[in-house]
Structures are given as structure tokens and as C-alpha cells.
Amino acid sequence: MNNPGFLSLTVALLGFLSPCLTALTPRVSFPMGSPGRHLTRFSSHDVNNTTTLLLSADGDMLYVGARDAVLALDVSHKDTIILRSKLDWSPSDKDLEQCSMKGKKMADCPNFIRVLQFLNTTHIYACGTFAFSPRCTYINSETLSMSLKPDEGRGRCPYDPYQRNTAIIVDGELYTGTVADYRGNRPVISRHLSEGRRADLKLDDTLGWLEDPTFISASFIPDEEKIFFFFSEVGREYDFIDKFIVSRVSQICMSDVGGQRTLQRRWTTFAKAQLLCQADNQLPYNVLQDIDTLPPAEGAPADDTLFYGIFTSQWSVNSGRSAVCSFRLSDIRSVFAGNYKVLNRDTLQWSARVQEKVANPGECGLHNASDNVLRFVKENFLADDSVRPVGRSLTMVSAEQNYSHLTVQRVQATNSRTYTVLFLLTETGYLHKVVLLQSGAHIIEEVQVFEQPQPVKSMKLSISKGMIFVGTSEGVVKVPTANCSFYWTCAQCVLARDPFCGWDPVGRACVGVSNTHATLRQDIDRGQVEEACNSVLLTHKTRFGPNKLPAASCPAGELVSVSLNEVVRLKCPAASQLSQQLWERPNSRLSSDLYLLLEDGSLSFVATPATLGHYLCLSTENDYQQTMAVYQVKQKNTPMTPTGYSRLEIHPVPTTQSLDRPGLITSGRTWPKRTESRQGVTKPTLSNRDAQGTTRQLGKNVTRWTKESGQTEAEVPEGDPLLAARSLCYLKELVVVSVLLVLCLSLLITMVLYVIRQHWRSRTAPQAGSPTRDSDRMTPVEHEALRGNEFLSKRNGQPLCSGHASGFNGALTGSNGHLPNTPI
Ligand SMILES: *[C@@H]1O[C@H](CO)[C@@H](O)[C@H](O)[C@H]1NC(C)=O
Ligand SMILES: *[C@@H]1O[C@H](CO)[C@@H](O)[C@H](O)[C@H]1NC(C)=O
Ligand SMILES: *[C@@H]1O[C@H](CO)[C@@H](O)[C@H](O)[C@H]1NC(C)=O
Ligand SMILES: *[C@@H]1O[C@H](CO)[C@@H](O)[C@H](O)[C@H]1NC(C)=O
């Protein structure tokens, strides 16, 4: 506030902003159908259960594995997804009959495509569950025609469509993690399609190399010539806890050809280690949900490869929460190079190996090794150390979201620093875009991608096209990774802290960083508008600039015509979900006794001669303040006030004592006291009409600047205060309605309680009319206030919300959203 003459009331919307959640509220929310973010959908009545997605190298074609079909979708066009071809691949009636005879539900018997990988430049390799009898085939990627003879799918694809699996083809060989039997209890990690002298390999299963795993993903690390598998499984080394789930990374070498006698046709390079996603002194987030590889930045060593994983917890304490942890390749490597645990076959206890190391398990190139070495390798496959997350801390924790899928991307900002951006899909159907900053994770925005929670099987990021593809049971959704033009002003563009977007001061637009060579303004780390937009515009400084307006024309803001004694409610649209709203009146005061601040930031008051005039709603975010709305409240021309329309009465009473909050100027000579009747307070007589102009607004006509030839109480600012109103979150409307509902309910409850109390009092008080002891201690004004506000606590005559009464940055925690109006 640069002008001390003005008063302001601030509402911190603490309902949304309780401390631990603050950092994790998405700044902007795009609900379904919002014009700020166009989603392109592909769905078709005969395409269901899109479980696997495969993106062509140029990002123009998306291959989709669905139920009984493989599709080729052309995704190179901006606003549409075109079906290029479709391959039907379903079991015969006889197969289905057999499937259901085996006791399987008919709905699970179709062919669910679970492996879809490029084999070479002309062919795709695909496998499906095929009526609980998995099959694989070669598909020409141009024509989508299938080779005549399907392959056996055992060990490459699960039988049961509900079992998770993972597959990756490198150099024409297929590496898979799946269960290899009908019952689903023989998990294997294996290699197929090997040619020449290389044998197909699988896991030795005599020693329990895997314990009931759920496969999540496989990643090829070119520099190491290794394939990593990520999964969760039962952690047998923790035998003191029943079925303790641990997350794992395991590795195998591509050069592996198996042993000559020992470990023939078996991996000689398999090793696994625990992935720990755990903060100090807290239960670990132990169940891996999804993981993605972030290759090192250009020129950085392969060691800097990072793996970002989503973890949830097995324990109910952490249910509904999820955490993101990142792991560095070099840490995984050193864990695999370290010591290994050994299983005592008699006691079935794991312990750290004490005897001499005969070989280095996990080392590539052991195929010619002696039986002795291979026997050692066979028994020592569980690394003693766990892989700890980068910085030994969690990258981010969400207390309210169960994330299920993620992809990660490095984005170069205009300051040529790179930022890590995560795209996290929530189980409720929102995509969160998160930038990782020194200060923690910042959720730039959320986009609703589907309405009903539904199982998402696949999410793919096309960095070259700036698109994310999500496969749901209903089809495919394409979401652009950014829409910079949504940010209308430099301030909004900078406050978003989106590394994809920067403000072009010449073109006066927020544009994509990669699409332009202009010098753009950005401040990802701090989001400081003043600095970043300095030479561009500074509207808020000119807010009350007295000489800014031509004397003849004085924009008056949105006109609100009221009758006296009517309850007025002015809406204050939020600039973002992280902003705080604040009200100002030029040349007048906002006393807490005249004004109610509702939790959604709107201002409610009774129209009296004293409350007519101008109102400004400001929004503060990250130290930057902008005007969101200007109103002029005027008395209607009709002189008569319809009585009974409003149930509020205002009685001015003389007062000598200032009862205002610090930072507020008292409302002059008069101290209106308030007697409220039952329904009066929150009746939003004007709010609907008023609200529409601002909160629904997305176009440029955000304010209706009306010219007033009559009296104007104050000069109201020029500038473009409302440009930023575009970025309102639609959620607010929902919130407004909910808040109103809650207000009404709590008011009702309060009334009921009051009536009961009155009833009780009248029975217990010695004299029906005499003041209670509580009210004895009160000043007459307080007494009035108490009478008017039933929500005061019984015990000491203090308002329930007195703890927050010292300033207006506190929350309005009173059950009905009133400002506390009894001073301490
Ligand atoms: C980006 O936002 C602007 C402004 O809301 C909207 O007009 C435009 O359609 C959006 N573009 C996309 C691709 O979502
Ligand atoms: C296929 O999709 C339907 C909903 O469309 C779902 O109920 C069913 O569980 C899915 N089947 C599999 C195997 O995912
Ligand atoms: C790709 O693999 C298929 C199936 O093995 C084969 O028929 C085709 O010739 C291969 N194409 C190339 C370019 O190697
Ligand atoms: C294994 O050793 C034999 C001789 O010791 C050698 O001829 C052969 O090339 C080696 N095999 C591999 C795969 O290195």
C-alpha cells in the first residue's frame, strides 16, 4: 500500500492455503471444457481399453493398443486426431469359448494389447492377452497389416489383462517383465527375439529372484548397455514385517548370453536393489506407481541420468498421499557395485555377506566365467545398500493427490538455465504441470483430462510436438504442454513461472520460449513481476494516480445500483489460486463493522449513504498487486426501498471509542451497530448479476467501464486492471457456491444453537431479562455486537475468531465467515 490514506481489508483464503498445502495448490486450474486449454480427443464406439501407446520418432503418428485392435492415429494436426488405420485382432469364437470354459469372465477374454514396440524401421511388434492365451505378432507400421503367423506370447505378455507388465525392444530384441503362466505366479524378466548365437534368456527361478512383483517400467541405458527394470515386490529381507512391499530397480546387461553350464540360458548379470523414497524419521513411500527417465542435459555425463518415480505408501497413515522421488544413475550404479546380501538357505534369513567376494554380481561379460563365479553370482543378486533419492530427500509430497502416472522433461528457460518439469496425472483425472525449483515444487497449472476417475494405462510425452497423450479406457486425449497465450499480461506471464512461457515486450504477448528468438521476460525462480516486467507496464502503481485521467472523463467502474438497506455483495475474482484478495475504497474506510469479507474474497455490506461509492478489489500474489475489479455502488433512482426485501437494519449510534482493527481507520463519527435477523446477512441480492461481469469473464470486455456524468466520489484509476481477470480459476465459482452453502448451513446451525441457548438461558437465568455475567463485563457496544452476532463464544464473551482479529491477513474462521467485530 503506497497510500496510507486508504484502508484495506485482506482476506487470506486460508481454507485453501493451510501451510503444508500452500506450495502444492495448482496456481491455475483448467476444468473440463475450459477455453484456456484445448484438449483433443479421440474416441470411437468400437475402441475400448486403450492400454498401450507408442509414439513414432517424429511424433506424427501415435500407435494405440486397445481391446482387440491396434490403431494408427495421425496426431500431427493441431486440433484433431485422425484415425489412419485400424487392425482388428481378436480371438476366435472358439478361443473365447475355451477362455470362458476355463472359468474366466467373458469381459476379460478379449485380446488386450499389452506390448507395442518398434521392432525396426518397418515393423511393430505387438502382443496381447488373447483370451488368456497370449500371442504376439509383427505389424507393418505403414499398412498396419499383420504377419500371417502369430508368435507364442508366453513370457512376453501376461495372460490376465489386469496384471501389469513391461516391455522394451532394443536392437531388435525384446526385453520383458511379466508373469509367464496362466495362474500368474511365475514372474520372469526375459529376453526374446534373439538371433544367431545369442540365446533367449530368462530368470533363474530356483532362488526367488523375484517375489510377487508388479512391473512398472523398463528403461534402456545406452551408455551402460544395460536395461533397467523398475517394479515393486514383497521385500523378503524384511522378514519381521508381513508382506512389506519394497520398490526395486533391477538390471541386466545386453551383452549377456547366459552361462555355459551353470546358468545356461539364464541371466548371469541380474541384480536388484531397493529404491528408497523416504524422508528422515518417516514411513517410506514404498510402492512404486510409475517412473520415467530423464536423460542427462546435453554435454553432461550419463551418470547424471535421473529417474523420477511416483510412490505411494502401503500404510494407511499415508493413504491418499503420494511422493515423487528422483534417483541418479550414478547412485544406482554404485549400489550395484557394492556388497550383496546373502540368503541362508536353512533359516531363510538374509544377511550382509561376510565371506570373500568371488565375483562382482551385476557385472557385464560373465558368460565365459567359471562355474564357481556363476554360482556366486546366482546367489548374490540383492544389493546390500538401497538406492537413496537425490539429495536424500523427497522431490515433492502431495498430501491430497494420488498421482498415478508421470513424465518428465527438461526445459530451457530464457536465462539459459534448464528446469525440470513434471507432468503428473492424478487419479481423479487432472494433469498437474510442476516445475521443480530450489524452493520446492511449484504446480504451474492443472488441466482436467477426464471427468470420471478411470484407469489410465499409458501416458506419453512428445517433447518435439509439445504434447502429452493419455490413454484411458475410453480413448486418447491430447493435451498441449503449455498455452502461453492464456497469460494475458506480463504480470500473469511472469507469475505463472512456467519455463515454457515468456513475455515478449515488443509483441506484447506471452509466447512459447522455444518458438521465438525474441528476448523474453521470465522469472521462473522467484516470479518477481516488478523486476521482470519493469519496463513493460506497471499499472498498479498508477492505481490512484490523481492526474492520470483526463478531467472530463472519469471511468467509474462497474455500476452497481442498489436500494438503501439492501445487502450488496461485490465479487472479487482471484487472479490465481495462489493470490489473496483485498478491498480498497478511495477516500473512505472499510470498517469491519460495516463490511463482511466472505471466504471467497467477496465483500458484503448493507447499502447506506456511507457505503455508497467506489470499491476496488485487488489481488496480491508473490508481492505483486493488481486490480481485479472496480465497482461503483450507487443508489437506485427509485426513492422507495422495498421493505422486507432486506432484513438488515442499521442503527447509527454515537461512539467515541475506536473499535477498529489496527490498520483501519474508524468510520468517522458514527458507529453503526447491527441487528441482524435470521436470513439477512448472506442474501446475495446483487451478487449474481455483479459476479457475471467479472468472474465468468474470459474475453477482453472484463470491466464495463461506465462513464458517470454525475457525482463521482473519487478518481478511479486508469490502466488495465482487469486484463488479468482472464486467469480466474473457474473453481472459484464452485467454491463460491460451496462457501455460500456452508455459510447458510452454519448460520442455520448457529441460529438453532442460539435459540436453544436462549431457551436454556431463560430457564436458568435468575431473571429473564437481566444480563448474564458474561454480558456484564461488556461495553454497551460489545453487548450490541453480541446480540447481533450469535456466533460469539459462550464462555468469555470473546468472539470465536478473536485469535485472528489483530489483522486482516488472518483467516476468517468464524463459522459464518463474518469478520470478527468485537475488539480485544
Ligand atoms: C490458449 O488460451 C487462449 C486464451 O484463453 C485460448 O483462446 C486458446 O484457444 C488457447 N489455446 C489452446 C491451444 O488451448
Ligand atoms: C476395459 O474398460 C472397461 C471400461 O470401459 C473396464 O471396466 C474394464 O475393467 C477394462 N478392462 C481391462 C482389462 O482393463
Ligand atoms: C523388420 O522386421 C520384420 C520382421 O522380422 C522383417 O520382415 C523386415 O524385413 C524388417 N525390416 C527391416 C527394414 O529390417
Ligand atoms: C569365451 O571364451 C572362449 C575361449 O576362452 C572364446 O573363444 C569365446 O569367444 C568367449 N566367448 C565370448 C562370448 O566372449
Describe this structure in words.
There is one protein chain. With 824 residues, this protein is mainly beta. The chain has five domains: 4-480, YVTN repeat-like/Quinoprotein amine dehydrogenase (Methylamine Dehydrogenase, Chain H); 484-532, ligand-binding face of the semaphorins, domain 2; 551-728, Immunoglobulins (Immunoglobulin-like, Sandwich), CATH 2.60.40.10; 730-770; 778-824, no CATH class. Helices cover 12% and strands 32% of the residues. The chain contains ten helices and 43 strands. It has a seven-stranded mixed sheet with strand order 15-16-17-18-24-22-23, covered by helices on one side. A hairpin with a 5-residue loop joins strand 26 and strand 27. The longest helix is centred in the last third of the chain and has 34 residues, at 731-764. It is elongated. Residues 1-22, 536-555, 641-732 and 762-824 have low confidence and may be disordered. Bound molecules: 2-acetamido-2-deoxy-beta-D-glucopyranose (4 copies). One 2-acetamido-2-deoxy-beta-D-glucopyranose binds at residues 367-368.
As a percent range, the share of strand residues is 25-35%
- CATH class wording of the largest domain: Mainly Beta
| Portion in helices | 10-25%
Compute the number of strand runs: 43
The outline comes out as elongated
Mean pLDDT: 76
CATH topology of the largest domain: Methylamine Dehydrogenase, Chain H
**Can you tell me the number of structural domains?**
5
Under the CATH scheme, the architecture of the largest domain is 7 Propeller
Query: Terminal Cα separation, in Å?
Result: 25 Å
Largest sheet: 7 strands, mixed
Low-pLDDT stretches are: 1-22, 536-555, 641-732, 762-824
Radius of gyration: 33 Å
Any ligands, ions or cofactors bound here, and which? 2-acetamido-2-deoxy-beta-D-glucopyranose
Q: What's the name of the CATH homologous superfamily of the largest domain?
A: YVTN repeat-like/Quinoprotein amine dehydrogenase
Describe the strand arrangement of the main beta sheet, using strand numbers.
Answer: 15-16-17-18-24-22-23
- Derived from helix and strand composition plus strand pairing, the structural class reads mainly beta
| Total helical segments | 10
